[in-house]
Amino acid sequence: MDGTATISSEHLTRRFGEFTAVDDVNLRVAPGQFFGFLGPNGAGKSTTIKMLTGLLATTSGRIEILGLDLEKNPVEVKRQIGVVPEGMSLFGRLTGAEFLNFAGRMYGLDRETAASRAAELLDFMQLADQPKKLVTDYSHGMQKKLALAAAVIHGPKVLFLDEPFEGVDAIAAGTLKSMLQRMIARGATIFLTSHVLEIVERLCSHVAIIHQGKLVAQGSLEELRAGVDAQTGGHAPENGRMTLEEIFLHVVGGTQRNEQELSWLG
Amino acid sequence: MTSNVKVLDQLKIIAELRWRMFLNSLRTIRGKTELTARIFVALIMGMGALGGAVGLGAAAWYFVSSGEARYLAVLLWPVFFFWQLFPVLATAFTNNPDASDLLRFPLTYRSYFLVRLGYGAFDPATALGSTWLAGILVGIGVARVTLLPWGVVVLGVFAAFNLLFMQMVFAWVERWLAQRRTREIMGVLFVVLLLSFQLVGPLMQHAGRQAKPGLQHFVAIAAPIQEVFPPGLASAAIARVARGGLVGGFGLLLALAATAMLMGYLLHFRLYAQYCGENLSEATAAKKATIAEQRSTSWRLPGFSAAMAAVFEKELRYLIRSGPMLLTLIMPVFMTVIFRFGPAGSGRGSFVARIPAMAFPAAAAYSLVVLTNLIYNNFGGDASGIQFFYASPVRFRQIVMAKNLSHVSILLAEIAMSWIAVDALYGAPGWDVTMATLAALLFAAPVNLTVGNVLSLYVPKKLDFSTFGRQRASQTTVMASLGVQMVILGIGGLTFWLAERSHEMWTGVVVFVGLAAITIPIYFFTLKRVDAIAMRRRETLLAELCRA
After folding, report:
1. Which residue in A157, A111, A31, A238 sits closest to B305, CA to CA?
2. Chain B positions in Cβ-Cβ contact with residue A109 (cut-off 8 Å)
């Protein structure tokens, strides 16, 4: 394993019966990186992130977070990471403030610190409007913001985010992005999955692409561009610079269907 | 461009959709089990429908042939009550998003209205009610064949009234259930209503001991009043024509039809609002709070870690906000009252009546049994929050222990309330009985907590704490719980019985403390294994509790 990596996996594999969802994945995420983990639907992104955060057992392989073996030191690893999983993991019948207090205390903060950070986070996330409202009555976007607030309340060194921008409006997305960039500036490492490639391109310095359970590309955006350039014989697009979407489509072999196929759409 | 779709075609498409959904549901074992259960229930209902139809038909024949057709009201009122109350009790306040989901399609209002009515037409209550009305009709026809056509018309309108009324009530109830707060208020009112029904018998019996109920007087007042309501109108319309009063009978039929139309209009009023896309948002007026205003510290739990205090607080907050759970927890005190005033409390054969000293142990045992709702499905109410537990740096044994701590606190509060209730109703329990009861709990609670913790991890079931009814623990949990309660109540009951007979209640205390010395270490031994079980079972737990 790479001792200098914040997140690393070695031969990470997960099978569900006959189906291999994640197949021999070797990831390396250096400290302070904003790392985007991409893949088409059903490629194995969420399965990988669940294994990296201890929500799902591996079939084989090893995971190290901050130099600690996840299987041997799960509690110590979890103390230093924050997670926003697929289902957001909220407790619907608490208010936003109660939930953040609860999250802070679960991560070992004392009552005073948990309370003051919870209030600050609610204010920052613009969730302070309805203090009596239960989480179950929040909109999807509000729940996303609250889940992120709970994931960062203890000041984690590593943050795992599964589709943090899904169903979030432009204003809320702006708030989330500014918070994440602030964390990166302070030395945290962020691992995120997203289908919104423009956001990943703007935020992430490094990217990995998973397709049909296998890691098919990994590196900085420049490295990925260079790799695709080399494969295509240097045929750059018209504007001269390949976008992440183009790289992604090239790597996963996505093809655009002929317009003729749906001619009735007008 | 789409062409205009005919109403009939839309109804056919929706029927096909329902059929396809039904077929798809049979792909799973759960779906097949459900179908088997439904067939079984349908058979029982079919027998009930036929038996009821024969009985009601015979009664109708008797009333009409003896020239007392006005007594048909005695048959029509139960049919009416069943038709209206059964669907409410059977569905027990859960949402049916099916119909409103269709509104995204270019459905005409007529189709939507008919679909809603159609759902009602296939309801078991409608099937049974219609069969019973058919039975009454046959009885009328056999008694007087010339009355049959008029009976068809009157009972047909009466059936239409029932169908429209049922759908109207459902449409309005659905509107109230669309919002969490009104849903919870409705749920609490519903359970209070059910509890009130429980009290009617004991209270009437209690009152009956003091004065004879004036049934004849009541009937004399109620008979003319009921004639202005649909069952009375239908009965009177038939009775009037049977006596040759065709005009009067027709007038009564018009009045019945008018009530049916009124129900139809109220249903239309509600459905049209749905059709036009009414907004049932639960958003309240925004009120920006300052950071200082939002700052609220969590609870302190001396002697326990921050994480345990957090889980303990979360559990109690959940409970306080759950109407169904709170009502479940007041049941022991409520049942103490029922036993005191009901037939069991007064009859000579009653155990508690003969030995009032046993009222407190009985109430305590009942409190523990009621609490198994929570104990045996520890994570049921957490839903996707279970992911938070797995992602947090807290050992599962701590989480489970904090949950157990909250359950024990609730149990102690219930025991205290039961003691006060017993004191008020039967007189204060003796010091020895109180101690024996507490010692029995010291033995029984760890058994339940141990089994409950293991079952919570092995057979979890997602629960919505805000919803009443249609929420059951898994069958495995139910069976295991039943077995454990039988053993505990058997041992406890036998010990109390022997101690009471020998007038040596303190011996009972010693026996229970001795048993607790075995069960408490078993509890802690199992608790140590909870982390390993939770890790092994995480996929099952996450899959069951995080599903939509």
Report:
1. A111
2. 306
Q: Are A102 and B314 in contact (CB < 8 Å)?
A: yes
Contact A61, A11 (CB under 8 A): yes
CA dihedral (B420, B426, B432, B433) in degrees, to 10, reads -80
Residue B418: which residues within 8 A CB-CB, separation 6 or more? B332, B333, B336, B360, B363, B364, B366, B367
Q: Is B317 in the A-facing interface, judged by CB distances under 8 Å? A: yes
Domain locations in chain B?
A: 7-208+222-275, 306-546
pLDDT tens track for A142-168: 899 999 999 999 999 999 999 888 878
Angle separating helix axes A140-152 and A96-106, nearest 10 degrees: 30
Does A135 have pLDDT greater than 70? yes
B428 secondary structure, DSSP code? P
Q: What is the spatial distance between Cα B543 and Cα B541, in angstroms, rounded to a whole number?
A: 6
How is chain A split into domains, by residue range?
7-221
Residue B384 at interface with chain A, using a CB cutoff of 8 Å: yes
Chain A residues closer than 8 Å to B304 by CB: none
pLDDT tens-digit series, residues A70-121: 989 988 999 999 999 887 788 888 899 999 999 999 998 988 999 999 999 9
Q: Tokens at residue B110, please? A: 């007529």
Q: At what angle do helices B396-425 and B431-458 cross, to 10 degrees?
A: 140
User: DSSP H helical segments within A10-63, as ranges?
Assistant: 45-52
Q: Does B470 touch chain A (CB under 8 A)?
A: no
Tell me which chain B residues have a C-beta less than 8 angstroms from the C-beta of A138: none
Residue B95 has pLDDT above 50, yes or no: no
**Within an 8 Å CB–CB cutoff, is residue B383 touching chain A?**
yes
Per-residue pLDDT reduced to its tens digit, B427-437 = 888 888 899 99
Chain B: give the shortest CA distance to residue A19, in Å: 16
Residues 519-548 on B with a CB inside 8 Å of A are 535, 538-539, 542, 546
- How far is it, in rounded angstroms, from Cα A145 to Cα A152? 11
A67 and B353 Cβ atoms separated by less than 8 Å: no
Q: How many other CB atoms are found less than 10 A from the CB of residue A55?
A: 25
Mean pLDDT across B230-249: 91
pLDDT confidence bin for B93, thresholds 50/70/90: very low
The answer to whether A85 and A55 are in contact (CB under 8 A) is yes
Instruction: Note the CATH number of domain A7-221.
Output: 3.40.50.300
Tokens of B327: 């009502």
Residue B380 has pLDDT above 70, yes or no: yes
Geometric angle at alpha carbon A64, from A78 and A197, rounded to 5°: 85
pLDDT tens for residues B500-510? 888 888 888 99
- The answer to whether A13 and A61 are in contact (CB under 8 A) is yes
Chain B residues whose CB is inside 8 A of the A76 CB are: 393
Determine whether the interchain pair B294/A123 forms a contact, defined as Cβ–Cβ distance below 8 Å: yes
Q: Do B180 and A85 touch (CB under 8 A)?
A: no
Cα separation, A117 vs B393, whole angstroms: 19
